[in-house]
Design goal:
By secondary structure, the chain is mainly α. The chain has helices spanning 2-10, 16-32, 38-47, 60-85, 92-95, 99-125, 137-146, 152-161, 165-199. The model has no long low-confidence stretch (mean pLDDT 84).
Length: 200
């Protein structure tokens, strides 16, 4: 499959349906062989041309990256994160009333915001630091909100600090929920900030 994928680019027989078919077949074969299926992506990535062919404005690798990045970042990675967290959907309702989950959520969304913004304000007021040129406190606020996104380290702390599996699941769900809320709030603030700067 790898040789056929490489040859299809050399001969410019690189229709999307054909390449997708090769990729799926390669994934199934490698997975069935007992080798981790991630190797498929590595193999196909190494076989994808990184130099523009005659008559092309950009190499296939750049074209594929631009086409697939929204799907990868917006769908695949979040689903992978949810699956890797090992959170059953049945735990969602319990997390809404669990004191530990509520504390984790508040700590990430509110605590990190207060810590980052407050720490920056104290550093500037005390003379230990200054805001960069053309950066105002209105620019710092969305960054402080973004600090509420937690994944790897937050989940590690959850697993180390909570011996009970059910509590770990609910706290992990709170980490993911806080990450989503912090992302959406920061996005809204950044868009509002951009509109104000454009209108000003």
């Amino acid at each position: 499959m790898g040789a056929l994928y490489w040859l299809s680019h050399r001969l410019r027989v690189d229709r999307a349906w054909f390449l997708w078919s090769l990729a799926v077949i390669a994934w199934v074969c490698i997975h069935a062989s007992g080798v981790h299926a991630t190797v498929t992506g590595i193999m196909l990535g190494l076989l994808t041309p990184v130099r523009a062919r005659p008559g092309e404005a950009q190499p296939p690798s750049v074209h594929y990256e631009r086409r697939l990045h929204p799907i990868s970042a917006g769908v695949v990675v979040p689903l992978f994160a949810l699956a890797a967290a090992g959170i059953p959907l049945a735990a969602t309702g319990d997390a809404l009333t669990d004191a530990i989950a509520i504390g984790v959520f508040a700590g990430l969304v509110l605590g990190k915001f207060a810590g980052v913004l407050g720490g920056a304000w104290i550093a500037v007021r005390s003379g230990l630091g200054t805001l960069p040129d053309q950066v105002t406190w209105g620019d710092v606020v969305p960054v402080a909100v973004l600090a509420g996104i937690g994944y790897t380290i937050s989940l590690l702390i959850v697993r180390l600090s909570l011996p009970d599996a059910a509590a770990q699941q609910q706290a992990a769900l709170a980490v993911l929920a806080a990450s989503v809320v912090a992302s959406l709030l920061a996005l809204a603030l950044l868009r509002r900030r951009a509109r104000l700067q454009c209108s000003g």
